[in-house]
Amino acid sequence: MADPSSYRPRPGEIPDSPGVYRFRDEHRRVIYVGKAKSLRQRLANYFQDLAGLHPRTRSMVTTAASVEWTVVSTEVEALQLEYSWIKEYDPRFNVKYRDDKSYPYLAVTMNEEFPRVQVMRGHKRKGVRYFGPYTHAWAIRDTVDLLLRVFPVRTCSAGVFRNAARTGRPCLLGYIDKCSAPCVDRISAEDHRGLAEEFADFMTGRTGAYLRRLERQMTEAAEEMEYERAARLRDDIAALKKAMEKSAVVLADATDADLIAVAEDELEAAVQIFHVRGGRVRGQRGWVTDKVEEVTTGALVEHALQQLYGEETGDAVPREVLVPALPDPVEPVQQWLTGRRGSGVSLRIPQRGDKRALMETVERNAQQALVLHRTKRASDLTTRSRALEEITNALGLDSAPLRIECYDISHLQGDDVVASMVVFEDGLARRSEYRRFQIKGRAGDTQLWHGAGQDDVRSMHEVITRRFRRYLAEKERTGEWTDGGEPGAEDSSAGLAEPPVNTFTEDDGRPRRFAYPPQLVVVDGGAPQVAAAQRALDELGIDDIAVCGLAKRLEEVWLPGETDPVVLPRTSEGLYLLQRVRDEAHRFAITYQRTKRAKRFRAGPLDEVPGLGETRKQALIKHFGSVKRLRSATIDQICEVPGIGRKTAETIVAALDRAAPAAPAVNTATGEIMDDTEEPGQATGSAGEPVSTGAPDERRGQDR
Predict the structure, then answer these.
(1) N or C, where is the chain less crowded by C-beta within 10 Å?
(2) Where's it mainly located (predicted)?
(3) Mean pLDDT, 10 residues at a time, the chain of 704 residues
(4) Cα angle vertex 86, ends 292, 516, to 5°?
(5) Which fold does the domain 4-94 belong to in CATH?
(6) Does the domain made of 396-598 have the CATH classification 3.30.420.340?
(7) How far apart (Å, rounded) are the C-alpha atoms in residues 259 and 255?
(8) Are 95 and 33 in contact (CB under 8 A)?
């Protein structure tokens, strides 16, 4: 722990102007980002007597080793820069709302030729209209099922759509009139897009005019004695009203607004958000966060607004945002929201009426969420602390292993050998720090490092050596350092499956690959694997990292140089944590190994063309229909494909020529040319039935 006075800047060095500041630890990692109307006054608060600081603020300033700042012109610029740096650096001490789930949205893919209605999660895509979020995916499907009667928009996947177009037969929804079946040209692309736009308009709350129009059409059909058409319109109106009843009207004036409520104590805060569109609650979500310092309710609201609207633009930001307290100052936040929406946004506290009553409901939800979280968190914190303490005592460590790294080797009978590295911090998985390796072996070990002779112990030695060689390179780096290589390419020198794609300078505070050492290295295996890992660290001169192994058969913990294992009680929380770490490393390794194997099995002649990515390969197959037709095409014909130049076309032709199938085999008994669809390892009998040749199945085996 550092003494804040050792890096405290002199008061005269800090400007008295708006800006953004960053605290860094001893590894130059950014651990906290903040903004201030006056940098001088704000930073002075961090360097007062430690006894007067909030416990987590005290932990932050003693973890930090330096502080720096950037001056900006306005408070709006400070808000924007703070948000972008929090997203870029992911500081461990900043307020980060932990969303407990990926909320589902009802999405209409207006960016496709035939828009599709579907449930979507995750990052939002350009050209897709989203409605929600919803608490449950089944609620979306119930709503869509009702609306498809009136708006028969496509809901099928791309594969189902293509298959229906190929066969000329629509899917079941097309037969029961819940899809207009554009796949078989029952409706034109323009008319289908119009249906999708009407669906989206209805979901935005523009329901009154549409219902009145249907009622008018129903009346006209009845007057003209078209009773069947009138009955269909009557049923359509009933379906729409039933869909509308699923979300009760909470604001009579058809308001579009988001309501944000906060429940907090000294250590944590829970945020609840209700999304109201057209006067109806269309979605709800909630977050929980640790309070790093003594932040006001207004500051928590500001952070919630940043997370909620930081990636949003346009209609996703409503005209009105109702909050329990206003940020101080409120003008920069309001200007930022207006810029995100492109028009005015009202940010205010509801005082009376329906909006105040609805805000009280949101506040009750926030209070319940905080109580539930505290109940779970108390047990979780106690369990994790006890697990780390038990590991510390069992392994004889000087301090609790706050960062644990675990390594596992995976292969299939010696092929596709890979390794995984998973990271747990404070007893929780930190997935952004996970890494994958391709095991290359050592020069001169050709026979040993290929086929069934692959050695897990040597693989473990290699991966530990490579990982901590990178750590030493980062530690000793004085100037610019880069891994080289293209984004997404494999590192041929080190065999990384995910090489760094950024060039980091000494002043960067981004979470860097391999830059931070663990307190404990866990390997999946027994004494041989542990000895290999320890030998790798000794060869690199690293003596401040503990090593242990967890043997799967009896769940024994092995230490370097010990003839007997450490046996933890079966009910030990420390053993449970080590098992979770080991199992996660095994899952991550075997998933990567299976992915590599499947990719190898699917490899085709186009994969050998350098610089030809997946998008252009798909364009070639779509243009020609198959590799066989592509093989018979001329260079000029290949150049007609968008994105394919003449040089690339010549490379494609050369690659296809090299991979051309051999001349057809001739049956020596009959003199006939054998069918080229016969599988290797099979011969054809007199009746044309396949005859086994007794060749072994090369894919038989069990994953390790």
Answers:
(1) N
(2) cytoplasm
(3) 76 84 86 87 84 77 86 81 81 66 76 88 78 67 76 87 88 86 89 86 68 80 81 78 58 76 82 81 76 78 84 72 88 86 86 85 84 71 84 88 91 80 87 87 46 68 91 66 33 37 41 76 91 92 91 84 85 87 91 79 68 81 82 87 86 78 48 40 36 35 40
(4) 80
(5) GIY-YIG endonuclease (3.40.1440)
(6) yes
(7) 11
(8) no
Domain spanning 603-658: CATH 1.10.150.20: yes
How does DSSP classify residue 660? P
> Which tokens in the block code for residue 578?
């080590």
546 strand-pairing partners = 520
DSSP character string of 139-206 = HHHHHHHHHTTTS--B-S-HHHHHHHHHHT---HHHHTTSS--GGGTSS-HHHHHHHHHHHHHHHTT-
The pLDDT assigned to 494 comes to 38
Radius of gyration for the alpha carbons in the chain, expressed in angstroms and rounded: 31
Between CA 403 and CA 425 the distance in angstroms is: 5
Hey, what are 342's tokens? 């492109």
Structure tokens at 55: 């416990």
CA–CA separation, 14 and 39 (whole Å): 7
Task: Locate the domains of the chain by residue range.
Answer: 4-94, 105-245, 257-372, 396-598, 603-658
Q: Is 372 left (phi over 0), alpha (psi -120 to 50) or beta?
A: alpha
Equal CATH topology for 257-372 and 396-598: yes
Closest among 336, 281, 271 to 309, alpha carbons compared: 336
Q: Which amino acid is at 393?
A: N
Amino acid type, 608: E
674 token code pair = 């054998």
pTM (predicted TM-score) = 0.50
Q: What is the DSSP letter of 136?
A: -
- What is the token pair recorded at 359? 């805000």
Supply 519's token pair.
């307190």
Cβ atoms of 677 and 691 within 8 Å: the answer is no
With respect to CATH, is domain 257-372 assigned 2.40.128?
no
The pLDDT tens digits for 114-142 are 999 888 876 778 888 887 666 567 667 77
Enter the tokens of residue 411: 């292969």
Residue 496 bridge partners (DSSP)? 437
Which SS3 state, helix, strand or coil, does residue 275 take? strand
pLDDT of residue 247: 53
Look at residue 405 in the predicted model and tell me its pLDDT: 94
Q: In what order do the strands lie in the sheet with 98-99?
A: 98-99, 280-290, 268-277, 257-264, 320-322, 346-348
Residues 581 and 523 sit within 8 Å (Cβ to Cβ): no
DSSP-assigned letter for residue 432: G
Starting at the earlier edge strand, list the strands of the sheet with 117-120: 117-120, 105-108, 129-131
